[in-house]
Specification:
The strands form two sheets. Strands 4-5-3-2-1-6 form a six-stranded antiparallel β-sheet. Strands 7-11-12-10-9-8 form a six-stranded antiparallel β-sheet. A hairpin with a 6-residue loop joins strand 2 and strand 3. The chain has one domain. It has three helices and twelve strands. The chain has 212 residues and is mainly β. The longest helix has 11 residues. It is globular, with a radius of gyration of 16 Å. Helix content is 11%, strand content 42%.
Length: 212
């Protein structure tokens, strides 16, 4: 791709409310992630982790992204950028929290209806990515993927689904503590590289009950 995904993120990240080194240009490297398949085979879905060395200490950011062959109507504010793929031609890359295809497949992962795929190897499941939901019979509210209200703030990106349920997309990744927060219904966890010799795991998304 030209420009590369990392190059596009270098320009895009400083404008996000959860970016820590706001006064410095990012120094990014890709250190983890996974993919999900679009059932229609039209939209690429990737959950990428990048390490940023621009600040006083490293930070690890989670950026869910979708890749489309044409612009997504009504999602101009979520466009990360456009790039030229050597085989597929021009691609529009979006912040996936605003793309109903990615959100729908993230719900499917939580419900056990989607299988995580390796980030860089085609048709290869990634069993290290786990999804857990407390209790049986969790159902996503009808139309939630298309109609979610998106709140993007310093703590990450929150999708308000209706029926007292929200999904928090983690943006600044931290290792799992093992302690459960009250009201959490479920989560998606995966790993990333802290350095060449060290890896950790954390929560990429958390499903929880909203407080009335």
């Amino acid at each position: 791709m030209s420009p590369t995904k990392v190059e596009l993120l270098t320009a895009w990240l400083p404008g996000q409310p959860w970016y820590a080194a706001a006064q410095r240009a990012p120094e990014l490297s890709r250190v983890g992630g996974f993919r999900l398949d679009d059932p229609e085979g039209e939209v690429g879905i990737e959950f990428m982790v990048v390490r940023d060395d621009a600040g006083d200490r490293p930070a690890w950011y989670h950026v869910p992204m979708t890749y489309r062959a044409a612009p997504l109507d009504g999602a101009e504010q979520a466009l990360i950028g456009t790039t030229e793929h050597g085989v597929l031609g021009q691609r529009w890359i979006y912040d996936g929290a605003h793309d109903p295809v990615l959100v729908g497949q993230l719900f499917a992962l939580l419900q056990g209806r989607a299988e995580p795929q390796a980030q860089s190897v085609s048709d290869t499941p990634d069993p290290s990515v786990t999804a857990e939901v407390a209790g049986a019979g969790f159902e996503v509210p009808a139309g939630a993927a298309e109609a979610s209200a998106v709140a993007n703030g310093p703590d990450g990106t929150r999708l308000l689904l209706g029926d007292g349920v929200a999904l928090q997309v983690t943006r600044v990744l931290r290792p799992e503590s093992g302690a459960e927060t009250a009201g959490v219904r479920g989560h998606v966890s995966a790993g990333w590289r802290l350095s060449e010799d060290d890896e950790t795991r954390g929560r990429f998304a958390v499903l929880y009950d909203t407080v009335s």
